[in-house]
Amino acid sequence: MLTEINFDGIIGPSHNYAGLSPGNLAATRSHGAVSRPRAAALQGISKMRANLRLGLVEGILLPHARPDHQWLASLHTRYEEASDHLRAQALSASAMWAANAATVSPAPDTADGRCHLTVANLATLPHRSHEWPETLAQLRIAFANDAFRVHAAVPPPFGDEGAANHMRLAGGHDRPGIEVFVFGVPGGAFPARQHREASEAIARGHGLDRARTFFAQQSPEAIEAGAFHNDVVAVANGLVLFAHEQAFADTASFYAGLRAALPEIEIVEVPASQVSLEDAIRSYLFNAQLVTLPGGDTALIVPEEARDTPSVWRWLQEHVAGNGPIRRVEVVDVRESMGNGGGPACLRLRVVADPRTVDPRFLVDEAKLDSIGEVIERYWPEAIKSDDLGDADLIRQIEEARSRLLTSLRIVELIDR
Ligand code: SUG
Asked: Core-most of 22, 115, 342, 387, by most CB within 10 Å?
């Protein structure tokens, strides 16, 4: 049976605040702050546990080998001798944001009836541009079954940031859906990370039906206000599209096209007069997990920052009380990830598939989360300050922590990458 599986990125032991993402206001604000990798990873585990308790199916993606010695070698240097900036780029734990791992088209949407995944090249920012080889290696293990087709990344300079700029709407996870690719147009104050050419290549590679595939431009004011990915201002699930009024460049014709292709669609648009773009981005209202619960209700899993932002919390309360499509709101604490601009939705990659076709080592239940939690408690560093990045003991601890985790999960083929 096809079901939605949320693969959460386990927050890696090198999680730190190096301010590497221009246009990501939270990350820029946190630059130089002390990070807490252990607490961060445990927050991620608690979120997964809460999802399991809601009846959702959960999987994991793993922290990458950091520092990335292979990447540094390709730059003809070594961690010990690299500049501070290169060190930070080689050490980033940014692979935790699994929504940027790949774009996923479930089997009912594709010409060959397989679930297609294209690994994202993340070409825009140096610290993310070297994630794809290990992400590809992980996806090729987790989705080795014939039910899947895993594609290599689209070549740069066409920037692709994966599922964070992709939405799917369908009458059910197992029914043919419509897929929306959201791209940005370069030229503004901040980078437009998703390029239309990359999205079009992915749609071709996945064998999508042109009539059910949309390419929508992200509004330049959203990018300017800090929406470096579409999933900071919009999210879709089932028949519900939940978006800020200023998310898209040409909203009227985009929505008209969606309504023509999927007449049952429910578009929930939050007006700027009730929640400003600034509040939406600060609170990560839309970087929420919009999920269908086993009973059929739609729930929204928001970060605590949404409850802390009065305009946002008011809007949510009124929506739920007023019988809107979102029937339930769940609040999770992912503050350490939020400090780098990663909310609940950034931390997971949605894959619609039959769980029996996934390598079981990448699926989790509560017992497995307990044992992952024990490894984190024992081996993840407690805190990282920006001037710690040259500390050889810390680097050894980071490397050991990851290999302990992979060993305990028996995913040893990734250890020596
Ligand atoms: O790419 N932050 C990530 C946050 C990604 C959030 N993902 C989604 N919206 N789906 C980024 O900007 C900051 C790391 C640093 O500055 O050290 C960072 O990479």
From this structure: 342
